[in-house]
Specification:
The protein is α/β, with parallel strands linked by helices. It is 36% helix and 21% strand.
Length: 231
C-alpha cells in the first residue's frame, strides 16, 4: 500500500496498517512507524487491533535544524513522536542518536506463527535442559544414575556459556597505542593501497586497511577529538 505524494498523513497510515492487520492472529504483528513527526495531528489516534502486539516508533530527520518544506520548517519533533509511542503502547527510538537495539530487532524479526518450541533460542534450550537435569538429580535414588548425569550436565553448562558469547569479538585485537609516520617518509605503504582516512580540524591521519584487518578497531585522538576507527 502507498499513499499519494503530498503532505504526510501519519494517522491515515496507522489506520491503514490496523485495517490490514485486523484479521491476523492476536499478537502476531509489530507496527513500525518511521517519521519525523512534524505533521502529527493533536487528536484522532486510530485504535490498533489485537493482532498488533507491539509498536516501534523511529524518529528520523534532524531534530535540531530542519528544512523548509511545503510552506513550513520541517524537522524531527521528538517529543511528539514519544507521545505517539506512549499512546500506542510502544517505544520510541531516535534514529539520529542511536541504532535500534539488537534485542528489539531480533524480537521484530521473530516469526510469531512458529510453535513456541521452535521460537526458543539455544540459550533457552540450555536453561531448560539444566532445569530438567537438576530435577532428575534431586529425584534420582541411584548414585550410578547421578554419575552418568554429570557428564551431559557439564556439556550443557559449556553450551550455555558459549551461547552467551560473541566469538567475533575474540578476533578483535585493538591497537593499544598509535604511532604515525608522515606520508612523504612512508615506504611500507604502496601508492594504491587502501587506507581509512580521517580529517578533523585541519589534522589528517590514515590507517592502512592491511593493518586494520588484524586489529579491527583503534581508539585515537584526531584534531583534539576522540575517535574510534574500525574495519
Amino acid at each position: 500500500y502507498a499513499f499519494k505524494s503530498g503532505s504526510t498523513k501519519l494517522f491515515d497510515g496507522i489506520a491503514e496498517a490496523a485495517r490490514i492487520a485486523k484479521p491476523w492472529r492476536v499478537g502476531s504483528a509489530l507496527l513500525v512507524i518511521i517519521s519525523d513527526g512534524d505533521t502529527v495531528p493533536a487528536s484522532g489516534m486510530p485504535v490498533l487491533p489485537p493482532s498488533i502486539g507491539g509498536t516501534m516508533v523511529i524518529g528520523v530527520g534532524d531534530h535540531l535544524s530542519g528544512k523548509f518544506i511545503a510552506g513550513h520548517q520541517s524537522r524531527q519533533d521528538e517529543s511528539t513522536l514519544r507521545q505517539v509511542a506512549i499512546r500506542l503502547g510502544g517505544e520510541f527510538h531516535n534514529g539520529n542518536k542511536r541504532h535500534v537495539p539488537s534485542d528489539v530487532l531480533s524480537a521484530a524479526a521473530a516469526d510469531a506463527r512458529k510453535p513456541l518450541i521452535e521460537q526458543l533460542s539455544l540459550r533457552e534450550f540450555a536453561l531448560l535442559a539444566i532445569a530438567l537435569a537438576v530435577y532428575i538429580w534431586k529425584h534420582s535414588k541411584r548414585w550410578f544414575g547421578k554419575i552418568l548425569l554429570f557428564v551431559p550436565l557439564l556439556l550443557i553448562f559449556v553450551f550455555a556459556w558459549f551461547a552467551r558469547q560473541n566469538h567475533f569479538e575474540w578476533m578483535f585485537n585493538p591497537l593499544a597505542e598509535t604511532n604515525y609516520a608522515s606520508a612523504a617518509e612512508t615506504d611500507f605503504i604502496a601508492d594504491d593501497e587502501m587506507v581509512l582516512a580521517v580529517k578533523i580540524g585541519g589534522e589528517a591521519v590514515a590507517y592502512p586497511v592491511r593493518q586494520m584487518a588484524y586489529h579491527h578497531v583503534v581508539a585515537d585522538v584526531v584534531g583534539g577529538m576522540p575517535i574510534t576507527a574500525t574495519y
